[in-house]
Please model this.
Amino acid sequence: MAKPTVKPGQKVPDSGIYKSTKSDTKSTLVKGEPAPPTPKSGEKWKQIIDTNKKN
Model:
């Protein structure tokens, strides 16, 4: 399954650790919450670690 990518302010589809696409800043985002602003204009958040793995 592809890792989710979200824009700032968009509801997060899956909890996990996300990295900004240009500045490489990392942040923990929670499912259902709005994604925080990114450090640079035009960036998105891309999930790098899924913290809700299903067994």
Summary: Residues 10 and 45 are 10 Å apart (CA to CA). The chain has no helices and four strands.
